[in-house]
């Protein structure tokens, strides 16, 4: 299964019912993100999945456009928004490169557990920079499996061929940070939530 949208459509319902494995570090991530949000912010979240994070952070901002390549994920997210009566989140079936996203129109772009799924991460991060207003913030958390040696680089392509995993880029923390700073960002906060396997939380400001 080479189409990532088909992969996530297939697993959307199971994914939506799966509890967060590490609530402590998930809560830490949300708490740190809130420190960089304000009630006037227009926010884009890419790779929103079934919308859990967008719906939790909605009270901290003016509006969130939350997008995902999986139409089934978006359907579930919309159902959750109605059930929770959250009105300032709009869920869109779209990619990071959707032509309806206007450059320079967002105060914040959020990408949680997303960058490692891109085949060309530098191009994706430059696109994020283009979408932000001057001084806008890019808030992300990315698993860096390369820090655990080469085994994931061997296992993940096999799992992908068997249909058990999407494309995943094995990154080192330093490599991830270099990509972000090279795209015109200044990193203003770093964290590891959790430290192992290392999930790098980064807040970066557009120059």
Q: Major β-sheet, in short?
A: 7 strands, mixed
Number of strands: 7
Query: Number of helical runs?
Result: 7
Helix content: 25-40%
The CATH architecture can be given as 3-Layer(aba) Sandwich
CATH superfamily: Vaccinia Virus protein VP39
Rg measurement, Å: 16 Å
End-to-end distance: 39 Å
Order of helices and strands: HHEHEHEEHEHHEE
Key descriptive features of the protein:
207 residues, alpha/beta, Rossmann fold, 7-stranded mixed β-sheet, 7 helices, 38% helix, globular
Question: How does this structure look, described?
Answer:
Helix 1 (about 5-15) packs parallel to helix 4 (about 70-85). The protein has about 210 residues and is an alpha/beta fold. The chain has one domain: Rossmann fold. It has helices at about 5-15, 25-35, 50-55, 70-85, 120-130, 150-160, 175-180, and strands spanning about 40-45, 65-70, 90-95, 105-110, 130-145, 185-190, 200-205. A 7-stranded mixed β-sheet has the order 3-2-1-4-5-7-6, with helices on both faces. The chain contains 7 helices and 7 strands, in the order ααβαβαββαβααββ. The model has no long low-confidence stretch (mean pLDDT about 95).
SSE topology:
Blueprint: H1 4-17, H2 23-34, E1 42-46, H3 52-57, E2 63-68, H4 71-84, E3 89-93, E4 106-112, H5 121-131, E5 132-143, H6 151-161, H7 173-182, E6 185-192, E7 199-206
Parallel strand pairs: 1-2, 1-4, 2-3, 4-5
Antiparallel strand pairs: 5-7, 6-7
TL;DR of this structure?
With 207 residues, the chain is of the alpha/beta class. The protein is built from 7 helices and 7 strands, in the order ααβαβαββαβααββ.
